[in-house]
Amino acid sequence: MISLPLTLGTIPLPKTCLLKFLVVDIPSAYNIILGRPTLNAFRASISTYHMKIKFSVIGGVGEAQADALQAHKCYVEAIKREKKRGLEETTKIENSNKRGKDPVPSPEPDKETPATVQPVEELLTVELTPSDPGNVTKTGSKMMEDVRDQVVNYLRKNKDIFAWNPQDLEGIDPGVITHHLNLDPSIRPVK
């Protein structure tokens, strides 16, 4: 962990807070991830649709506005770098914007990447209860065999905690979870 000052906004209404950052040495498309602790420190309100953060400062309201095109370019460049280094397995997902024109242009289609979502690896089906073929789960095929055996043994040992069907949920304390429809009894239902 490292403490650094972070300034959001521009003159005349910037705000600076001393924040703790966790530094990790892993490939990522992001330089920094600002979470709830940061937003709380700045007492900020965010709008993902407008790509804007607003926060109170002495003398008004400060704001930090993102540039959608620049953010998209940075993301695409980071992904390209990771592909060159061979550290990331990515899958392309078709861009379908139902609201109309996409404000951010899509990158050039990658000819070698399929246009559908594919699993990163094959999954192996594991029966947790040999007497009941419905009690199955899946594990990754690239997992080391001894680790897979440990995981499967652990799951088999604790198979009673899984809800395989709705009848398995009987007896749960309503203090843990309760299903309730918030309906106004004075309003007639619509067919």
What does the main sheet amount to? 3 strands, antiparallel
What class, by secondary structure content? alpha+beta
End-to-end separation in angstroms reads 57 Å
> Number of helical runs?
3
Mean pLDDT metric: 79
Number of strands: 7
Low-confidence parts, pLDDT < 50 over ≥5 residues?
Answer: none
What does it look like?
The protein has helices at 36-42, 68-85, 145-157, and strands at residues 2-8, 15-21, 44-47, 52-57, 60-65, 123-127, 136-140. With 191 residues, it is of the alpha+beta class. It has three domains: 2-66, no CATH class; 67-118, no CATH class; 123-161, no CATH class. It has a three-stranded antiparallel beta sheet with strand order 3-4-5. It is extended. It starts with a strand and ends in a 34-residue tail after the last helix.
Keywords:
191 residues; alpha+beta; two-stranded antiparallel ribbon
Write the layout of secondary structure elements.
Elements: E1 2-8, E2 15-21, H1 36-42, E3 44-47, E4 52-57, E5 60-65, H2 68-85, E6 123-127, E7 136-140, H3 145-157
Antiparallel strand pairs: 1-2, 3-4, 4-5, 6-7
